[in-house]
Specification:
Oligomer: single chain
CATH architecture of the largest domain: 2-Layer Sandwich
Distance between the termini: 26 Å
Number of helices: 16
Helix content: 40-55%
CATH class of the largest domain: Alpha Beta
CATH superfamily of the largest domain: Ribonuclease H-like superfamily/Ribonuclease H
Structural class: alpha/beta
Number of domains: 2
Low-confidence stretches: 88-96, 110-122
Order of helices and strands: HHHHHHHHHHEEEHEHHEHHH
């Protein structure tokens, strides 16, 4: 008898499913069927989440009366500001989405504080009463179901995924939904991928060491693993000062094969990262390692390691970051999705966060260059 694989649901999906169950008028069976889960399992999730909410409420009871009053006042003020923002002045009175939102507000589920606010949002009583008599459309119900999966995926990846990756993730889960609809729903919910910022220069090419030729010449393709590795160094700011991260990336699968982090920019950290990569990957003798012209890569210490393992060295042209584009792209992704998202932290916390992120990048994060599969999956598919 064949063994069926048990479906694993993320905590984010469970929470979004319970939220839909509590806000929707449909029965538990209907909601469970739309999400593709067992109704009994959905009920268990709701019971467990209610227990967690009670624990949070008990912690809030420990707050002093003055703090509780201040919190109540701020919540009230926030609600007033959101009402002023969300009153639909600019939409046409005949807009179905507008009238539907007015109906929700008047039923007590929305954010308009009273029925007196409705005329300002509706503009026309005829449309308001006409839409009050209509139920929720099939497309609106399917949008609620889709948003459960979208929000769960977005939260699971910690706001690192935009609509293309979220869409591919949902397709891999077996959901039939269009890419543009995912983008539209994410935009309506205010779900956007993190944006990058400017970076700090870490390359020191003013040295007297010998330079290597540019053998890669922007040909960032390899037919097999361990043919071309790229490397670079970037900075990471912590509460105790700067840290410098060096990584080695396999061009074939875009996998990070070795890395090290230190508080100095000397060659020892670069050599440690390279030795870790060599110990884990055990490449053949035809490996090329490409980097910039930094003193760490031109040093005798680093070149000694290359000679011992019979590795060919390649270097970018001076001041041309495009000669190492995949590595620069990884730095932008790392800083956008991890460093800038978490702010400053102690060195030990940053070190562990980087280790966790690199493991996530290799094993979980879908890569657009690889047709939205992870680097580990890409290598496994090509090796099969």
């Amino acid at each position: 008898m064949p063994i069926t694989k048990r479906t694993q649901y993320t905590p984010e999906f469970k929470e979004e499913a319970v939220r839909l169950l509590e806000s929707d008028t449909r029965s538990v069976e209907e909601i469970a069927a739309s999400l593709g889960v067992n109704p009994t399992l959905l009920q268990k999730w709701r019971v467990k989440l209610r227990g967690m909410r009670r624990k949070v409420a008990s912690l809030e009871d420990a707050v002093s009366p003055d703090e509780r009053e201040e919190l109540r006042r701020l919540r009230k003020r926030l609600k007033e500001v959101e009402e002023e923002r969300d009153i639909l002045k600019k939409r046409r009175p005949s807009s179905p989405s507008k009238a539907n939102e007015i109906r929700i507000h008047c039923s007590g589920e929305g954010e308009l504080s009273s029925r007196d606010d409705v005329p300002r949002a509706a503009g026309c009583a005829f449309w308001f009463y006409a839409w009050c008599k209509r139920g929720e459309s099939t497309r609106a119900r399917s949008a609620k179901t889709a948003l459960v999966h979208i929000r769960a995926t977005y939260r699971h990846h910690k706001a690192r995924y935009g609509s293309p990756r979220v869409h591919r993730e949902l397709c891999d889960q077996g959901l039939s939904i269009g890419r543009h609809r995912v983008a539209r729903l994410m935009k309506s919910e205010g779900l956007y991928a993190r944006q990058k910022r400017r970076f700090r220069k870490t390359t020191n090419s003013n040295h007297g060491f010998r330079l290597a030729n540019n053998l890669v010449a922007r040909h960032f393709e390899a037919t097999a693993p361990n043919r071309i590795w790229l490397s670079d160094i970037t900075y990471v700011y912590t509460r105790e000062g700067w840290l410098y991260l060096v990584c080695f990336l396999d061009v074939h699968s875009r996998r990070i094969v070795g890395w090290d982090i230190d508080d100095t920019l000397d060659a020892s950290s670069t050599c440690r990262a390279l030795c870790r990569a060599l110990a884990e990957r055990r490449p053949s003798r035809n490996l090329v390692i490409h980097s910039d012209r930094g003193i760490q890569y031109a040093s005798e210490e680093f070149r000694r390691v290359l000679r011992v393992h019979d590795i060919t060295q390649s270097m970018s042209r001076k001041g041309d970051c495009w000669d190492n584009a995949p590595m620069e792209s990884f730095w932008g992704t790392l800083k956008r999705e991890l460093i800038e998202a978490n702010g400053t932290a102690p060195r030990l916390v940053v070190h562990q966060a980087i280790a966790d992120y690199i493991d996530y990048y290799n094993r979980e994060r879908k890569h657009s260059t690889l047709d939205y599969v992870t680097p580990v999956e890409y290598e496994s598919e090509r090796a099969a």
